[in-house]
């Protein structure tokens, strides 16, 4: 079912979206496991779910009655979050209400533009979340028709320093500069940081690792306990 930008925005306003993903090789990577994580997030009160790959998008759509933000990661360097129109349409066809895609302005592997991707996804009846690293990228993406702008890529592209916590300065700057709903995403580790993001002007907050990544969370404890 297609949802309007206004209805998705209303559903997630001031609320939590849980990213249920696992990196290649991780024991949590597998559709049934990721669906279970999404169901747990829904049971805990999440307002939306963010998931990777068309197969997982379709399975989560069938299992959870919440807006689904889908993406398709291809590789882990350059433009890898839903890099081409082909990836974006596969995610939309799998049932994502919103397709998240890199909007950093770097060259895309199909030579297309973010604006092309937005047009194709809208024609397919889905919405677009622009994953950006900077204020300029977010403003441009909103001007190109993105329905949501997310700080996903702050700290993950060349020239964008990675903070230990979320980039709340970018959240605030985007919220002041664009009419598109701004999503705070990336390294939000505590409920307090999630609340702070809303106070800075975020429309909604995405949390992944701190909720759905036991391998990474275990490693944090193990690293701290390792004697020098
Ligand atoms: C940079 C990148 O590829 N981010 C990805 C985007 O979908 C995911 O790997 C993150 O887990 C997600 O953004 C949520 O962030 P965090 O796990 O820090 O709460």
Automatic annotation (TrEMBL):
Catalyzed reactions per annotation: an N-acyl-D-glucosamine 6-phosphate = an N-acyl-D-mannosamine 6-phosphate
Pfam families: NanE (PF04131)
Function of the molecule: Converts N-acetylmannosamine-6-phosphate (ManNAc-6-P) to N-acetylglucosamine-6-phosphate (GlcNAc-6-P).
Stored Gene3D superfamilies: Aldolase class I
Biochemical pathway: Amino-sugar metabolism; N-acetylneuraminate degradation; D-fructose 6-phosphate from N-acetylneuraminate: step 3/5
Molecular function per GO: N-acylglucosamine-6-phosphate 2-epimerase activity
Lineage of the organism: Bacteria, Bacillati, Actinomycetota, Actinomycetes, Kitasatosporales
Keywords associated with the record: Carbohydrate metabolism, Isomerase
Biological source species: Streptomyces andamanensis
Name this polypeptide is given: Putative N-acetylmannosamine-6-phosphate 2-epimerase
